[in-house]
Structure prediction request, 309 residues.
Amino acid sequence: MKFPKPQTLQQIANLLQCEFVGDNNFPVFGMNEIHVVEKGDIVFVDHPKYYDKALNSAATIVLINKKVDCPDGKALLISEDPFRDFNMLTRHFKPFEFSNIAISDSAKIGEGTRIQPNCFIGNNVVIGNNCLIHSNVSIYDNTVIGNNVIIHAGTIIGADAFYYKKRPEGYDQLLSGGRVVIQDNVGIGALCTIDKGVTGETTIGEGTKLDNQVHVGHDTIIGKKCLIASQTGIAGCVIIEDEVTIWGQVGTTSGITIGTKSVILGQTGVTKSVEGGKSYFGTPVEESREKLKQLANIKKIPEILSKLK
Prediction:
């Protein structure tokens, strides 16, 4: 997430009321999670286990809860609670914008696009040409939708990420300041839910088709011409490469990659990254031929035991 205009390290430190290490005029262009940070971004870290990863990331400003040696060319923001202060930055630079009309005045809707009754189109939404948005669809702020996209009834695009920090008094949500980007010729079924990125983008690639009741978590990137069947749940920060087929009731863990032209058979739990060009099944996930052999051998156990008597 880039700020509307560049900030200085001093300005950010004043906003957070925290001390800093670095030049007062050190440039700050935005803030991001560690997997999408770029030069000029702030990244936060609040556990020693991840200090090195944050300090050695592409981010040039590290919001951290301990004063440590600052790498060359970088700056530190020293905070008692980096999670809280990261949220403070999101509230400041990407505040919630209330809307009291069904289709925001700031939304841009392309030629030939048809929107059925009872839809909500939020602030700064962009919808391309020749799209069809069926009834009771909610499209949250800043979503970008390409041309020739079909979205069926009851789908929600742009809800907050499911991302919480456990505290003694309960769960504290990491605020979402990102967006959803849906490319051309995508089809989205009824009652789907696509969460926006925390600071970046959740992306559905060109020509991909989602069945009914599919969930896509925050910051996930789905490639081109994928097919995803009903009741599939995709966690946050997953990369699904081009032309992947995922059958019904599949679930994934977060932060994995599913390779190009993979086929994930129904009711599989994708617990790790998998190579492209192969078929997979089972929980934990394995190549389908190997898993089916294992299941066949399990059926032979009673026969084997009977021979041992």
